[in-house]
Design a protein that fits this description.
alpha/beta; seven-stranded mixed beta sheet; about 15% strand
Length: about 325
């Protein structure tokens, strides 16, 4: 039996309502579970503060597993994690309201791998916002996404409207890890581009979320002359085109002028009426931060300059590039 469009739309609507109800139910269960673990952790921490011995936790674990045989999560190690969870989060104003936002296994990953409260907040908010799985979250922590976002160099504060500039800043990293490409140390720009396109899923994941692929060597034309943008992406949340230029050497000031040229063409000839102006990302092998700062200072178009590496290892002194805790707090509120 064939269905009319009205009938098909009706069935689709019902399916969406069921999926939403399933999601809401799952989220409610997660909140209840996290609240339970929070209360158990609080009780254990309070008894430890009263000088109770450590033996109470193994005894509690044994009793709970005996009393609730079908319920997982009461192993000794997990009970200690609950106590740690409460102890390390309850007095931190920016973390306590977020405890119900992600699953317990993701909380464990963040708690064990991140010790700074602002870093923890960043990964909790990002996991919720971008829907990261546990494995993706662990990969993002390992790739130092927190540091790469906060140390980025853009002129977005000066060139983008208020409604999108905060999200745009968070959409560009200071350094991208292309270790998944297995490229030799010496490679050409075309080899880098082709490798990224061949690994487009991993590339978009490394970009950080909400990016879609629009094309490589994207052709634009001015007075019968052809020009080609290395990579063209679209950011679904910012609702704008993102031009990416790849450079295998050090950043040069003239790269900014070429990117401005591309952005002007995209804004005039490619973007749709409902879209925001395009932004540009220049990804180089190396950059002098002072040269980048002076180059971007005179640009009226939104451009970010990043570096790439074929490993996930950051320099030891990278943390010195991070903004102050007050500035990080502001960025996290924007996230």
């Amino acid at each position: 039996m064939s269905l009319s469009k009205i009938q098909t739309d009706f069935i689709t609507e019902i399916k969406q309502k069921i999926r939403q109800a399933q999601y809401d139910a799952m989220k409610a269960v997660n909140v209840q579970l996290i609240n339970l673990y929070w209360e158990i952790g609080k009780s254990i921490a309070e008894k430890q503060a009263e000088s109770w011995g450590k033996s109470i936790v193994p005894a509690l674990s044994k009793e709970l597993q005996s009393e609730f045989p079908g319920v997982s999560g009461f192993a000794v190690a997990n009970l200690w994690s609950m106590a740690q969870f409460y102890t390390e989060y309850h007095a931190v104003e920016n973390l306590q309201p977020l405890v119900g936002e992600i699953s317990w296994t993701k909380h464990i990953a963040i708690m064990n791998k991140c010790k700074d409260s602002l870093e923890r907040e960043f990964y909790i908010r990002s996991t919720r916002k971008f829907g990261w799985t546990k494995n993706v979250l662990i990969n993002q922590i390992g790739n130092k996404i927190y540091e790469k976002y906060l140390a980025n160099q853009t002129n977005f504060d000066e060139t983008l409207p208020e409604k999108i500039k905060n999200q745009a800043v968070l959409a560009v990293k200071d350094e991208y890890s292309f270790g998944f490409l297995n490229l030799a140390n010496e490679h050409s720009e075309s080899e880098l581009e082709n490798a990224l396109v061949s690994n487009i899923r991993k590339f978009l994941l490394e970009m950080g979320g909400f990016f879609t692929f629009a094309g490589n060597q994207f052709r634009v034309e001015v007075d019968d002359k052809e020009y080609f943008i290395d990579l063209l992406l679209f950011h679904r949340q910012l609702q704008c085109l993102v031009a990416v230029e790849l450079k295998i050497g050090e950043f040069q000031p003239e790269y900014k002028g070429k990117m401005e040229f591309y952005l002007s063409i995209l804004n005039d000839k490619v973007k749709l009426p409902n879209e925001n102006d395009a932004i540009g990302i220049i990804i180089c092998k190396e950059k002098n931060r002072t040269v980048v700062e002076y180059s971007l200072k005179t640009s009226a178009l939104p451009i970010g300059v990043a570096t790439y590496t074929t490993t996930a290892i950051l320099p030891e002194n990278y943390w010195r590039l991070l903004p102050s805790s007050e500035e990080i707090n502001e960025k996290l509120r924007e996230l």
